[in-house]
Predict the structure of Histidine--tRNA ligase.
Amino acid sequence: MSESKKKIEKLSGVKGMNDLLPAEAVYWEQFERAVRAMLAAYGYRQVRTPIVEHTALFTRGIGEVTDIVEKEMYSFVDALNGEHLTLRPENTAAVVRATIEHNLLYDGPKRLWYMGPMFRHERPQRGRYRQFHQVGVEALGFAGPDVDAEIILMCQRLWDDLGLTDIRLELNSLGQADERARHREALIAYLEQHADALDEDGKRRLYTNPLRVLDTKNPALQDIVNAAPRLIDFLGDASLAHFEGVQARLRENNIPFRINPRLVRGLDYYNLTVFEWVTDRLGAQGTVAGGGRYDPLIEQLGGKPAPGCGWAMGVERIIELLKETTPEMEADGCDVYVVHQGDAAALKASVIGEHLRSAGFDVIVHAGADGQAGSFKSQMKRADASGAVFAVIIGDDEIARDVASVKPLRAGAGEGQRSVALDALASHLADALTGDSSSDAADADDGESSGGHTLH
Ligand code: ATP
Ligand code: MG
């Protein structure tokens, strides 16, 4: 191979970080529409925080001995100013940081939501990526169990709106710090008796984060964790009453749940209510959303003490479920594809395109200037493939008569090709789209035109 023909190496994306191509984006758009409608239905308002934060936010906010902080963060030193920064692995800490920084709670509690990419250096596999996406809510400044129940109801409504079944709710209470401390002592004493049988993670966490040992997925440890002292047995009256308040509201709303005493969640900031939405349809990565109450967090991050609770859902996992329930989701095609033949028509095509867009139509104008537009036949092929409802065709003949030919491309969009005065094109298409046959008035052969815009 000669020097000049040397093959240029192709670049690929970063492992565990996915491209989202149009065929899949259709599912994401449907999900995002549903999620925005659901969030609006509960009066939640959006916040957008940066993707990069100071590393200290996450070490302080999430906890030093969590999976995320121990081994999953994309952290780096900014070469230009030496700052220690991290690509956000989750967004609760950042939303709380922004709330404190902008004093958002000064005039009362807030219901907030966010959506966007998160980054964790994990082993990529189905449902587990290094860049993934979460939608989350944070209800800040509300102490009662009513809001815990509200954020759970929100998830159920979203599953219903998306037509997703088989997602079940698991619930637990982590109580308060002093209750956890008493349970922790008992748990450590118990785990010490079984120390030899623990796996490496278990041994490491025995003293640092024994609660997390209960969260293990190692099948060999299930008997040990099943018989371990249960946190729920260490809760005092106030914690139990809060937990009961959440459950009562779920029961009133006919939301089934299972209390899972081993549900602890992987982040340190939770107290009282914790929950996960789980499905069996995604293999090992079956948790589609998780959340709970994190009353200590705002103060921990330097704010005036205020309670909080929220959840985050993994969008990729929900998209997987959506794909299963609707294997063939087509993108909406455009309304109109403009086909043109000849130089004069090629010029006019862009004007017609703009006119129709102003009238509210989605329009693709066939591209290819100065004789490069291709044959009529090949343009019509493109028009068909585009999914457009109509082809609007202009050639020398149409230009001379100030008309366009309209050809329905989809069943139900009318019969046969007809000639329509340019002035009446928008109203003719609108009528044809809504199936109103009185559009005959718009036919160029009737002489009179009713369109408001002038295209000459
Ligand atoms: P897991 O136990 O699956 O690691 P987690 O407890 O680390 O989950 P959270 O931090 O609670 O997860 O994040 C909330 C949701 O975000 C998860 O329930 C999951 O749906 C999604 N999620 C978390 N990590 C990933 C990832 N690496 N790739 C895709 N989705 C993820
Ligand atoms: Mg994880």
